[in-house]
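Contributing new records

If you add data, match the layout below exactly. Sequence lines come first and carry their own label; structure lines follow with theirs. Keep one chain per record. Anything else will be rejected by the validation script.
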Amino acid sequence: MSPQSLTFFPSDVVILVTGLVGSGRSTFINAFLQESSQKMRVGDPGSLSTCTKKVDCAVIDLSTSSRCKRDYRLVLVDTPGFNDCDRSDSSVLHDITTWLQKSFPEGGHRGGVIYLHDISADRIQAAADSDLQALDFAFNSERASKRLVIATTKWNCINNAEANRRHDILKDHWKTLSASSTIHKFNETADAWNIISDFLPQLERGSPISMSRELSGMKEKKDKGERSHGSKREVAFRSLARLFSRFLTNA
């Protein structure tokens, strides 16, 4: 949905659902939608190009939820995937920040990031070494890391023993990188709700965001980062972390 077609409230909790192309971002969001609701489009298995071409969102009224009852709404933002063969990570980041700026021009919202990792992807060790280190560098403060959750997906694509082995590898890697963020398993609807139920208490203690200030700071850090670091994805992750850092309390 476009920002113009929705009305957002200061009490809304906003979560960006991010990850590489094919990690299952739209599938994760669909787990929260009722059968009668319009679903997010899901891409073809193995595609190197994201099916999510533009930022979209789903709004879940938690006051009517039997799984995770709260007195506010949850806004799950479906984002284009990183590592797309057709576009750069910086282009994806630009679309995300533009959508956020149009949707929440006055700030005042609480939020975080869920990063999805395809457990069935080949070369799991290399993925753990690169993407997790980039994430850790981006969300390296204790305040920011509490606003990040990692969830493994695509458990039905490989045998359970191998999936558990890979999940343990990721947990061990992430444990050495960050003590504040956690890795969850997403395989079915109940898992998605469990992830959100565990994550929300961290996000409920939020303070307003100054969107114009954050976007300006993100551009400055992005410009410096691309000159001094080799990983453009690292720059994108760091920009996301900076964007949400203003949601934190006890600054």
